[in-house]
UniProtKB/TrEMBL annotation:
Family in the record: Belongs to the aldo/keto reductase family.
Annotated source species: Virgibacillus byunsanensis
Matching CDD domains: AKR_AKR5G1-3
One Pfam entry name: Aldo_ket_red
Domain NADP-dependent oxidoreductase: 29-262
Alphabetically ordered keywords of this record: NADP, Oxidoreductase
Highest taxon of source: Bacteria
Name assigned to this protein: Aldo/keto reductase
């Protein structure tokens, strides 16, 4: 169980990843993302999640450099975008990301979406990057069970992570069960459903009971469900507030009530249709 901002989850290759981090999707490159990364790290965060699609890797790298914490204590994730997939182009995309971030290695590199007919080639490129020591761990994002089964059928290295849309309206129970069985860690993007869950009456009631915000209740629910989570914010007070979730515990009935809100509703695309 994650009990503090520095607590880690041990991935299936032995690498330790913080259970809570900062996402920077749609955080503008330059000052905005630099300041949010610095604010997160200087307030105790140790995991930063970006992607080539976000077009802010340079700012993320700058924020890491300008923070008070040495690089080796920070867990950095990036992802290969769909139009970069395939063996050679993935290797190239990785080098581009590394150069923009101005880092010597990545902690985690993910396939952003399962592009049909390409993701296995892409995975072979990730396996090479891993074998060459350029990345400490490799994983996937937005993979459904059948995508994972397809990949696992003939990969040499098993993904450590599957980062998917996950929140009380999309609890992904079958997918989480499958990942648990395969020792693949589930990670949540859009844990607050882009703000759409902040006024959900059941969550509001639970938040009032614990004297916490609805966002804090949802993020706590993620952790108690064993899911790594990376809420996005560019405001320092919100970055601090999001992480202030280690001084209370949701009861079993709280958890059950939040789980009952599932309606398989996505805020982002369906991986099978994307």
């Amino acid at each position: 169980m994650i009990t503090s901002l520095q607590d880690t989850v041990t991935l299936n290759n032995g690498v330790k990843m913080p259970g809570f981090g900062l996402g920077v999707y749609k955080a503008e490159d330059g000052e905005v993302v630099i300041e949010s990364v610095k604010a997160a790290i200087n307030n105790g965060y140790r995991s930063i999640d970006t992607a080539s699609l976000y077009k802010n890797e340079a700012g993320v790298g700058q924020g890491i450099k300008e923070s008070d914490v040495p690089r080796e204590k920070i867990f950095v994730t990036s992802k290969v975008w769909n139009d970069e997939q395939g063996y050679d182009s993935t290797l190239q995309a990785f080098e581009t990301s590394l150069k923009k971030l101005d880092l010597d290695y990545l902690d985690l590199y993910l396939i952003h979406w399962p592009v049909k007919g390409l993701f296995k080639e892409t995975w072979k490129a990730l396996e090479k990057l891993y074998a060459d020591g350029k990345v400490r761990a490799i994983g996937v994002s937005n993979f459904n069970i059948h995508h994972l089964q397809d990949l696992l059928a003939d990969c040499n290295v098993k993904p450590v992570i599957n980062q998917v849309e996950y929140h009380p309206h999309l609890t992904q129970v079958d997918l989480q069960e499958f990942c648990t069985k395969e020792n693949i860690q589930l990670e949540a993007w859009s844990p607050l459903k882009r703000g759409a869950l902040l006024h959900e009456p059941i969550i509001v009631e639970i938040a009032e009971k614990h004297q916490k915000s609805t966002a804090q209740v949802i993020l706590r629910w993620d952790l108690q469900n064993g899911v790594i989570t990376i809420p996005k914010s560019t405001k320092e007070h919100r970055i601090k507030e999001n992480a202030d979730i280690f001084n209370f515990t949701l009861t079993k009935s709280d958890m059950d009530n939040i789980n009952s809100l599932n309606c398989d509703d996505r805020s982002g695309p369906d991986p099978d249709k994307f």
